[in-house]
């Protein structure tokens, strides 16, 4: 995971003011350094090396420009040429920032900030940002933070705090995607996937891509005044084909419902992972949580004794009959429910004659006391099958 200029701005929103280069907030930061006198005329050629490189965030008071503020423009041009991520100016001498410097930074999408608080100290920023970069680069950071997010799901303040640790640039309208994998990615494979994520234009400062629980998790957020179009999100990721470009085939991908408060991120992550499990079960499709039907109402209670007892009362007689007689009554009932309770589709799915399916359904009715042709009885049979499926998909619930 990358630390971006947008993350910096959100972390120090009360102490920084963006004055130029707003188009470059998605630039990543790999290191923080101070511009002192290195670019001062007459001195800059005496340095063995300039201590600035690509993706550096540069901090400066520009004391050396007190007699010539236009040196600020020269410094910005130099830093842009070096590929620096941005510039933070603590204008202790209240120097006028040349208009030429502002125009140049805007054209180059090079973020320039003014420090607006006397309480912001460069040493503190360097320490905090460097530590944050190290956290994000750790393969365990996302895992441990999302674990904490889910563990504290009942505490809205804690969820929001964990969410902003994952990405300070998250907006309050968002959706979570989760790709379940048959085998966890190696670090090299994830870095390749992350490279494609950026290359295909999916990356943005208000988004996140991370490895979690053996799969890949993504969060897409936008300002709440905009419409979060799930069709567009799904289509964008499908057309970018970042997994396929890396030779990776997800076992199943889930997309959460829309959410409109960061306090709901734990719920969103859970929804995406649950939908991905169903997608895996159905052969590797992409499934939205919104499309899970009655499962949405059942999932909060998966593993509960009342549900298990309800399913067992209906399905246990079938499984006992199957064990004793080598029949396939439970399989037939489950397929019947999965096929929308259509005899013809069930026969096709199981490769059996329709009359064989009807015979088995009659036997199921006799053993359970529930007539598959009556709406209320059929609903109970279907509910038992769905409870059993949830128990299989979420055995640790």
UniProtKB/TrEMBL annotation:
Top-level taxon: Bacteria
Domain named PucR C-terminal helix-turn-helix is located at 330-387
Any one Pfam family here would be HTH_30
Looking up InterPro entries in the UniProt record yields: CdaR-like_regulators, PucR_C-HTH_dom, PucR_C-HTH_sf, PucR_dom
The residue ranges of the Purine catabolism PurC-like domain are 14-133
- Transmembrane segment boundaries: none
Name of the protein in question: PucR family transcriptional regulator
Q: Which organism is it from?
A: [Collinsella] massiliensis
Lineage from the top down?
Bacteria, Bacillati, Actinomycetota, Coriobacteriia, Coriobacteriales
């Amino acid at each position: 995971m990358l630390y971006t200029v947008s993350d910096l701005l959100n972390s120090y929103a009360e102490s920084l003011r963006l004055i130029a280069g707003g188009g470059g907030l998605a630039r990543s930061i790999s290191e923080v350094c101070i511009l002192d006198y290195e670019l001062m005329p007459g001195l800059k050629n005496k340095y063995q090396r300039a201590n600035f490189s690509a993706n550096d965030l540069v901090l400066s008071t520009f004391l050396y420009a007190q007699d010539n503020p236009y040196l600020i423009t020269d410094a910005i041009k130099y830093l842009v040429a070096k590929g620096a991520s941005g510039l933070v100016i603590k204008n202790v001498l209240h120097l006028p920032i040349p208009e030429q410097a502002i125009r140049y930074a805007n054209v180059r999408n090079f973020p320039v900030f003014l420090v607006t608080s006397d309480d912001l100290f460069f040493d503190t920023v360097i320490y905090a940002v460097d530590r944050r970069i190290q956290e994000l680069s750790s393969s365990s950071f996302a895992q441990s933070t999302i674990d904490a997010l889910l563990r504290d799901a009942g505490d809205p303040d804690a969820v929001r705090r964990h969410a902003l640790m994952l990405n300070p640039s998250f907006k309050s309208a968002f959706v979570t995607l989760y790709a379940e994998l048959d085998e966890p990615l190696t670090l090299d494979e994830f870095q390749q996937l992350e490279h494609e994520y950026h290359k295909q234009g999916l990356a943005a400062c208000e988004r996140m891509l991370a490895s979690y629980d053996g799969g890949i998790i993504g969060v897409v957020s936008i300002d709440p005044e905009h419409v979060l179009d799930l069709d567009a999100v799904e289509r964008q990721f499908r057309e970018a084909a970042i997994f396929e470009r890396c030779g990776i085939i997800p076992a199943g991908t889930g997309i959460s419902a829309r959410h409109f408060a960061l306090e709901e991120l734990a719920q969103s992550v859970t929804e995406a992972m649950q939908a991905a499990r169903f997608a895996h079960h159905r052969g590797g499709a992409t499934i939205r949580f919104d499309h899970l039907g009655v499962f949405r109402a059942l999932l909060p209670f998966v593993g509960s004794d009342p549900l298990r007892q309800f399913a067992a009362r209906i399905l246990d007689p079938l499984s006992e009959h199957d064990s004793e007689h080598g029949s396939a009554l439970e399989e037939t009932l489950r397929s019947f429910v999965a096929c929308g309770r259509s005899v013809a589709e069930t026969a096709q799915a199981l490769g059996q004659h329709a009359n064989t399916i009807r015979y088995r359904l009659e036997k199921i009715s006799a053993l359970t006391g529930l007539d598959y042709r009556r709406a209320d009885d059929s609903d109970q049979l279907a509910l038992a099958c769905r409870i059993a499926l949830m128990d299989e998909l979420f055995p640790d619930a």
